[in-house]
Every structure is written in structure tokens, then in C-alpha cells.
Design brief:
185 residues; mainly alpha; 2 domains; 82% helix; Chromate transporter; transmembrane; transmembrane helix; membrane; cell membrane
Length: 185
């Protein structure tokens, strides 16, 4: 693995992803799959692990992929590369935003950016759902009922109901899902 390629690819993920962690998922997925760093199934597992561990999801994913591709130095390079664009942009934006915060064009731009981030997050949700709820790696909508894993849907629905009804800390639901998965599968 060329460390420079690792840096460039994760820097691109950082610079072209507005909205942070979940908004970065589509670009992270495209990059990681295109470069052959992970498979579709590994990417879905990586999302679950990255969400379950402390820290931002994009940094957790970059660290894992960097480590698996280039060892400790690769993990460091990928992690720095994914946060560097946001760090630079935050400094630039903070400098100018105070002056132009109330400008109608700035307000309009942020409305559009929030909508774009929502679209990116929804795309990531659909992609992860397809990998998580299907028993085959490449889901085929024509074979939907045969390929779908109804146990996964049951766990998914129980988690949603539990979260809405009991409002416990997310780690409680992660542990419950892990135990349920170990028992059911």
C-alpha cells in the first residue's frame, strides 16, 4: 500500500464530505471498495464497529482501513488525512463567518447544505440496510423476499421500538443487539 495514495484518498474524503461522520459514509464506501481495501460486507461491519467505539465514525473507519493497509503509520496517515480538510476549513470559516453570518446568501447556502447532508445520510442508511438485511452480498430487488434476512429486520424493529419507548443510552441497545445476534445467528 502506498502511503501517499492512502493520504490522498482520505484527504479527498475529508474535503468533499460536508456534514461529518454519517455524511462521509457514501464517499468512504466508494473509496474503500474501489481501492479494494474492504468488501461490501466488511464495510457494513466496519460501520457497526465504528459506531460502537468512542470517537467520530470517519476517524475510526480511517484508522482501521489505514492500519489494515499500512500498519500503525498507515492508521496515523489516514486519520490525519480525513480530519485535516475539516480542520483547515473550520479555521477559514470561523474567520469569515462572524462577518457574514446574517447575510441572506450564507443562510441560504446552509439550508441547501443541510438538505444535501440529509440526502447523503439517507443514502448511507439505504446502502447499509441493503447489506445488513440481505443474506447475499449483492442484493437483488427481484429476489427481495428470498434474500432478505427477517431475523435482522426483527432485531432492527425491536431496537427502534426500544429506543423510542425506553430512551436508554445507545450502548445498551448495542449490547442487546450483540447478545441477540450471538444467540439468533
Amino acid at each position: 500500500m502506498n502511503i501517499l495514495i492512502l493520504f490522498i484518498e482520505f484527504f479527498k474524503v475529508g474535503i468533499f464530505s460536508y456534514g461529518g461522520g454519517l455524511a462521509m459514509l457514501p464517499l468512504l464506501q466508494e473509496t474503500a471498495l474501489d481501492k479494494g481495501w474492504v468488501t461490501v460486507t466488511e464495510f457494513a461491519d466496519l460501520i457497526a464497529i465504528s459506531q460502537s467505539t468512542p470517537g467520530p465514525i470517519a476517524i475510526n473507519m480511517a484508522t482501521y482501513i489505514g492500519f489494515s493497509s499500512g500498519g500503525v503509520f498507515g492508521a496515523l496517515v489516514a486519520s490525519i488525512a480525513v480530519i485535516l480538510p475539516g480542520f483547515i476549513l473550520a479555521i477559514i470559516v470561523a474567520t469569515f463567518l462572524q462577518r457574514f453570518n446574517e447575510h441572506p446568501l450564507v443562510k441560504s447556502a446552509f439550508i441547501a447544505l443541510k438538505a444535501a447532508v440529509l440526502g447523503l445520510v439517507c443514502t448511507a442508511i439505504v446502502q447499509v440496510a441493503l447489506v445488513s438485511l440481505y443474506t447475499v452480498e449483492q442484493g437483488n430487488l427481484l429476489r427481495f423476499y428470498r434474500d432478505i434476512d427477517f431475523r435482522a429486520i426483527a432485531v432492527f424493529l425491536i431496537m427502534i421500538l426500544g429506543i423510542l419507548k425506553f430512551k436508554k443510552h445507545p450502548i445498551v441497545y448495542i449490547v442487546i443487539a450483540g447478545v441477540a445476534g450471538a444467540i439468533i445467528w
